[in-house]
Specification:
The chain contains eleven helices and no strands. By secondary structure, the chain is mainly α. It is globular, with a radius of gyration of 20 Å.
Length: 228
């Protein structure tokens, strides 16, 4: 868990001690996993709606249906919880990125990459929104370890695209900007889900909408970079 060092005040320390005693008395690691899952989901929802500054710990606790003491016990502070939400989305994001390199065929690789990126947005809509908002604000709270992992994964994928271009398997283009275009085209669906629903005349996008988005973005990308 990526947690910043905190010096909790007396109230927080007492709350943490209380939550810890309750957790230990239950003697069930499954309860810990359940609580962590509930808190992370509730935090993702709250941060996606109100942002970091306007979200309060009691809002998250209320969404999770848990005492606020549990938040301090597991995460020590709101900032630590926010960081953990970011890092929880980083793992599926890196797996989606690696999908590009699972095939030597650029068509299959690009199809898998676009599909994977839109799939994780559909599966983790709130965390995806929080992560996207954090990047738009300059990544001020994203840990350096997370930034490093993103940079290294981007370098690997750019090098992979450049190799395909040099072999003539992709049309000549700038691999960095091709990667940025794919990022922006897919990330749109975490930022603009409400607009997508309005365009479609539905309460919220469903799986079929994301499938259509995947096909459309894939068609646009392949149409521009696959040699005739």
């Amino acid at each position: 868990m990526y947690a910043q060092t905190d010096t909790p005040n007396a109230t927080n320390a007492e709350a943490a001690a209380l939550a810890g005693a309750l957790d230990q008395s239950l003697g069930n690691p499954g309860i810990r996993r359940r609580n962590l899952k509930l808190i992370l989901r509730a935090a993702s929802e709250a941060f996606s709606v109100s942002g970091f500054t306007a979200t309060h710990s009691h809002d998250i606790a209320e969404r999770a249906g848990l005492p606020k003491a549990n938040l301090y016990y597991y995460f020590q502070s709101k900032e630590n919880l926010y960081i953990q939400v970011l890092m929880s989305f980083l793992e599926p994001l890196l797996k989606a990125s690696a999908a590009l390199r699972h095939s030597d065929d650029p068509v299959l690789g690009l199809q898998a990459y676009i599909k994977a990126r839109i799939r994780i947005i559909r599966e983790h809509p709130f965390a995806a929104t929080v992560f996207s908002q954090e990047l738009l604000s300059g990544g001020k709270r994203l840990p350096e370890a997370g930034k490093h992992m993103l940079q290294e994964e981007a370098r690997r994928n750019v090098a992979w695209l450049r190799g395909w271009i040099e072999l003539g398997r992709l049309a000549p283009c700038d691999p960095e900007h091709l990667m940025i275009f794919i990022w922006s085209a897919t990330r749109t669906y975490s930022n603009l889900a409400w607009q997508m629903a309005q365009v479609r005349g539905i309460p919220a996008p469903d799986k079929s909408d994301y499938d259509r988005a995947t096909r459309t973005v894939t068609q646009m990308v392949l149409g521009g970079v696959v040699p005739a």
